[in-house]
Design a protein that fits this description.
The protein is α/β, with parallel strands linked by helices. Strands 5-4-17-16-15-6-7 form a seven-stranded mixed β-sheet, sandwiched between helices. The longest helix is centred in the first third of the chain and has 19 residues, at 122-140.
């Protein structure tokens, strides 16, 4: 067995310390873990284990991976990882198979004059990419370069450092296609881009457009289950009766895109009846009078005509929230309801932050929490030289002034490529073409580049557009930088190397970006290995890489969250801002008021198309995994969902093949007819419709929602408004 394995004997040796900590609240200290890991037998040479983190979505849940005879044999979820809490979802179990996929990229590729990819050496790839980057910078300046990445521990560090070293401010995450509106809206009100609901201790919790049973962290689902078992009032507001509704007391099948009206009407009731937390608001809020005036006419009767929820239910729920407060809140959500979906997503996020404030629930037990965090401290500048901050503004920051500065509006950068302002783009772990907005349009944008470099493990639709494709090893074959996690007890977790390289000519991202930096003339900013950097980061918080390798997760109880402590509001006024001058300058009202969706279905055979998560897939990331696609096939999960009454009116029965169409695309699939669906919309499952023939498992399976999506961006916020899409549906052969 490995030095990392915990035997029954060694675990019992540490059980006294464990029992003491469990009685104090359930957290195991690093010291207890060290004791539990003592007295290990020697490894047999062919089997070992290591702590790592899943890569099937951005949550990065921690687990221990076991290897037998050189191959992955089993996964055991970490009890102490902040996101896993002892559980792994289906994606977590299925995605490791990607390491053994026959579709893995194995060598650097270059697109030749015929538009075909041919293998080249790493030396040639680095040299040619470096020469082209230097030529672009010399001719156009560093602002003509951009990079898009889907954040992972090493990826986030190395990509940002690489682009900063080149002098370009055009650094982007996947946020505009995920959660940029949610993050930006919250920031305008509370000065923080997110918060967590203390679900397990809540008396009342409401989820808007979110299903924690379908995604995204096991710890979130465990919290919901505890709340349900303790008798909390759980309300699901979602056009689709999602899988989390099994724990709910109520499901409200709201009209898509109208959550803002619903929240404003509940706020109206709290203020009208004087049942909000007046003392809390007086002490912590600016702009209350402006918000109150703006929602004076946002009555439940008004909202009923927009969102389809009965006025009496809106009245009742507002009162129930007030009675449960402060142990109550609206959950922060993720992508599904207002992360990036509608023309009013950012304003919906603002309204939620305001509503929670009216409950006085910030940092209260059972309420909405701004928990503690920890991060790496200052490092030796001689060993890890600081990179100068790039001059100029990120492309899109002026056009979308409310957008998250750390995320950026990635698809706007693509339009700048089409317009000739950006000449070279790098993509790391990002399938922009298939997953962000209209694929045909984004392909045109990338085709206009002088240089397109994609770093991935398989041939994505974005990789097909590239001039150079650089093969990364799978997440199981590399050490990454530690992931620092916020929470009630902050922690740090490790993605360690589990497997030896399966394809010897693949590389981890740290080596890839160091090689690119050397070739581009900025290698002086990378005079260290990932091991050295990880160890330095951990030593800056009192630990080491050796320590973290032994235990997987280390907690920081000295930084534990304290209930009742008023947060420091990182807003211009240093208070909670019901009214925002920045929002007013961006064209919105200073305090959130009603903004209608961009489009509305006309009825007949026209529907709004919405999408979301399935418990087995994360957008395009997991579709090419055989174990996960097998579940899709067994349960016919590519079907669109349609309301039973609307289906009957159109002569459509469960299981029929239908044609889904709009001006951009037409495709066929089977239909799931159900009463668990709002009648104005269809639900199209995610992850399907792969158009890369080199992904043999995923290719041609199901429909891809982005094919039907026009290129469009939410005013001010910059999200892709992925649910502002209308389609017609008809039975094939009718």
């Amino acid at each position: 067995m490995s030095e990392n394995a915990i035997t029954r004997r060694s675990f019992l040796a540490g059980s006294a310390g464990v029992a003491t900590l469990a009685a104090a609240g359930g957290y195991m200290s690093f010291g207890a873990w060290q004791q539990a890991c003592a007295d290990e037998p020697e490894a047999d040479g062919g089997s070992w284990s290591a702590y790592t983190m899943c890569n099937a979505c951005s949550s990065k849940c921690g687990y221990k991976a076991y290897v037998k005879n050189g191959r992955l044999s089993k996964l055991i979820a970490s009890e102490h990882d902040a996101h896993a809490k002892g559980k792994i979802c289906a994606r977590g179990y299925g995605y490791p198979s990607i390491a053994y996929s026959e579709d893995r990229l194995t060598d650097p590729l270059k697109k030749n004059d015929k538009g075909e990819f041919e293998k080249i050496s790493w030396e040639q790839a680095y040299q040619e990419i470096g020469d082209k980057v230097k030529a672009i910078v010399d001719a156009e300046g560093p602002q003509a370069l951009a990079l898009v990445q889907d954040p992972r521990p090493s990826g986030g560090y190395y990509t940002k450092r690489f682009l900063d070293a080149l002098g370009s401010p055009n650094y982007y995450t996947h946020g505009a296609a995920c959660n940029i509106s949610k993050a930006a809206g919250y920031t305008q009100v509370i000065g923080a881009s997110d918060f967590s609901a203390d679900v397990a201790n809540s008396k009342m919790i409401m989820y808007i457009g979110r299903s924690v049973a379908d995604a995204i962290r096991p710890s979130h689902l465990q919290g919901l289950q505890k709340a349900h078992e303790k008798g909390a009032k759980v309300v699901m507001v979602d056009p689709r009766c999602n899988n989390s509704t099994v724990f709910a007391d109520e499901w409200l099948p709201i009209n898509p895109g109208t959550d803002l009206a619903f929240i404003l009407a509940m706020s109206h009731v709290l203020i009208r009846d004087g049942i909000y937390a007046k003392d809390y608001v007086d002490a912590n809020v600016t702009g209350f009078d402006e918000f109150a005036a703006g929602v004076k006419d946002c009555t439940p009767a008004w909202a009923e005509g927009i969102c389809g929820i009965a006025a009496s239910d809106i009245e009742r729920l507002a009162v129930e929230f007030a009675q449960a407060a402060p142990a109550a809140c609206i959950d922060a959500g993720w992508r599904g309801g207002f992360g990036n979906q509608y023309a009013n997503s950012g304003e919906t996020a603002r309204a939620i932050a305001v509503f929670n404030t009216l409950l006085g629930c910030w940092n209260q037990k059972g309420g909405a929490l701004l928990t503690s965090s920890v991060s790496a401290g200052k490092l030796d500048e001689e060993k890890f030289p600081p990179v100068p901050k790039p001059e100029g503004k990120k492309a899109g920051s002026e056009e979308y002034p409310l957008s998250s500065s750390s995320m950026g509006v990635n698809v706007f950068a693509a339009t700048q490529a089409k317009e000739g302002n950006i000449k070279g783009m790098f993509f790391y772990n990002s399938n922009m073409v298939a997953g962000y907005s209209n694929p045909a349009y984004l392909q045109e944008c990338l085709d206009a580049l002088d240089l397109c470099v994609v770093i991935d493990i398989q041939m994505s639709e974005t990789a097909l557009c590239a001039d150079y494709v650089l093969p990364e090893c799978s997440f199981l074959e590399r050490l990454e930088l530690p992931a620092f996690n916020g929470g009630k007890v902050p922690s740090v977790s490790l993605r360690d190397k589990v497997l030896d390289l399966i394809h010897p000519n693949t590389k981890p991202c740290d080596e890839i970006f160091k090689g690119l930096a050397d070739a581009c003339g900025v290698g002086e900013y990378f005079p260290f290995t990932v091991e050295e950097l990880a160890d330095a980061q951990l030593k800056s918080v009192g630990s080491s890489l050796a320590d973290l390798r032994r235990v997987g997760t280390i907690e920081f109880p000295e930084k534990a969250f304290e209930y009742g402590k008023t947060p420091k509001w990182k807003t211009p006024s240093e208070k909670i801002q019901f009214a925002s001058e920045k929002c007013a300058k961006a064209g919105y009202t200073a305090a959130p008021t009603w903004v209608a969706p961009a489009v509305m279905p006309a009825g007949g055979n026209q529907f709004r198309m919405i999408t979301g998560k399935q418990a087995i897939h994360s957008h395009t990331m997991t579709a090419n995994c055989k174990p996960l696609m097998a579940i899709t096939e067994d349960y016919d999960l590519t079907r669109i969902w349609m309301n039973a009454d609307r289906a009957a009116a159109l002569g459509i029965k469960d299981g029929d093949e239908v044609e889904v169409s709009n001006d951009l695309h037409t495709g066929r699939c089977r239909v799931k007819v159900t009463q668990r669906m709002n009648p104005t919309a269809i639900f199209m499952p995610p992850a399907y419709g792969c158009s890369s023939e080199q992904q043999h498992t995923a290719y041609g399976i199901g429909l891809r929602s982005t094919d039907f999506s026009p290129y469009q961006l939410e005013p001010g916020y910059g999200s892709t408004m992925s649910h502002e899409v209308l389609v017609t549906v008809k039975k094939v052969g009718a």
